[in-house]
Amino acid sequence: MNKIIERKMLVPNIHLLTVEDPFIARKIQPGHFVIVKLDEYGERIPLTVADWDREQGTVTCVFMQVGRSSRKMAELKKGDYIPTFVGPLGKMIEIKNYGTVVCVGGCYGIGSIYPVARAMKSRGNKVISVIEARSSFLLYWEDKLSEVSDDLIISTMDGSAGKKGHNSDRLKEIILQEKTIDRIISIGCTFMMYDVSEATRADQIKTIVSLNPVMVDGTGMCGACRVEVGGETKFACVDGPDFDGHQINWDLLLTRRRIYIKEETNSEEINH
Ligand SMILES: Cc1cc2nc3c(=O)[nH]c(=O)nc-3n(C[C@H](O)[C@H](O)[C@H](O)COP(=O)(O)OP(=O)(O)OC[C@H]3O[C@@H](n4cnc5c(N)ncnc54)[C@H](O)[C@@H]3O)c2cc1C
Ligand code: FES
Questions:
Q1: Rounded CA gap, 243 and 210, in Å?
Q2: Who contacts 234 (Cβ-Cβ below 8 Å, separation ≥6)?
Q3: Which end of the chain is more exposed for a tag (fewer CB within 10 A), N or C?
Q4: In the prediction, which pLDDT does 40 show?
Q5: Binning pLDDT at 50, 70 and 90, where does residue 272 land?
Q6: How far apart are CA 63 and CA 184, in angstroms?
Q7: At 22, is the secondary structure helix, strand, or coil?
Q8: Residue whose CA is closest, atom 52 of ligand 1?
Q9: Euclidean distance between CA atoms 188 and 109, whole angstroms
Q10: Going by C-beta distance under 8 Å and a sequence separation of 6 or more, which residues neighbour residue 51?
């Protein structure tokens, strides 16, 4: 059982969850994820880590309320217990001194990109962080990201903060401005990561994306999370979740993500 230290809404529909787990806090690295199960019959919810405190023994995730399980998670309170909180899972994102690194985040990925930007900065990279939201009231953690970035660039779809448009629009501008970009890391919804990968394809800038296909066991046993990368089948939970965005079969990924849409809709309707 893991005690909840904090659960709060950061912005509408996006929540922060901090859980006590000294073992995971000691081992966790940028790009790792955990699997949360809220009760014996609950589904497994994979969440990328957004922060941690090794001394306090806590791990923080940022999650979007999208369906039945994430709605139940949003009802949790400080002092409640989570029966299953497993991690660190997956491979960590490779952190090296590349030169100039652009960290791109959207929705929950604004949180998950933060430890990546922090680690890239501490390895001596020039870090440009790029984040997007539909509107200014859906942006969060700009202060935390500014602290670990040389530059923070914001896009909103309605133009209420930063420039109007998407992360991919900003990336195209950065590619024109910067002499070299050595690596791009992107975390967030699948369409944004696809867009980012397409924006950097022509210039062949290495673009790493953190895939979030449906997962069940998270340990390479069930095959639910299989994706095609460079023509080969990979299991996102053990081979990833981070892969080269230019090598991913995006059509297959998007089709597979929609497989359970009827069940997901039904489970919300049954509950209401
Ligand atoms: C490695 C990984 C890391 C992730 N990190 C985060 C994160 O940090 N924050 C966050 O908000 N979300 C993250 N997700 C997505 C998150 O796990 C799903 O949004 C969540 O499981 C939805 O559950 P639900 O019952 O609320 O929604 P549902 O109604 O069940 O589904 C809503 C959407 O979530 C997707 N989904 C459902 N179940 C799963 C599952 N078991 N695994 C993956 N996707 C699923 C479906 O494709 C659907 O599009 C991550 C997913 C993966 C695989
Ligand atoms: S979630 Fe089962 S193999 Fe990846």
A1: 7
A2: 226, 227, 228, 240, 243
A3: C
A4: 82
A5: very low
A6: 22
A7: helix
A8: 212
A9: 4
A10: 59, 60, 111, 114, 115
Is residue 270 scored above 60 in pLDDT? Answer: no
Give the pair of three-digit tokens for residue 103: 């960290």
Q: Which residues line ligand 2 (CB under 6 A)?
A: 215-218, 220-225, 235, 237
Cβ-based neighbour number of residue 25 at 10 Å? 21
Residue among 34, 45, 225 whose CB has most ligand 2 atoms within 8 A, to mutate: 225
For 197, the token pair is 């990968």
Residues 47-59 as b/e (b if ≥16 CB within 10 A, e otherwise) read bbbbbbeeeebbb
Distance, CA 236 to ligand 2 centroid (Å)?
Answer: 7
Ligand number nearest to the C-alpha of 242 = 1
- Rounded Cα–Cα distance for residues 205 and 183 (Å): 6
* Ligand 1 binding pocket mutation candidate from 17, 28, 70 (most atoms within 8 A of CB): 70
Contact status, residue 52 vs residue 58, Cβ threshold 8 Å: yes
Query: Closest Cα to atom 5, ligand 1: which residue?
Result: 47
Dist. CA 234 → ligand 2 center (Å): 10
Q: What CA–CA distance (Å, rounded) separates 168 from 193?
A: 9
Question: What pLDDT score was predicted for residue 219?
Answer: 92
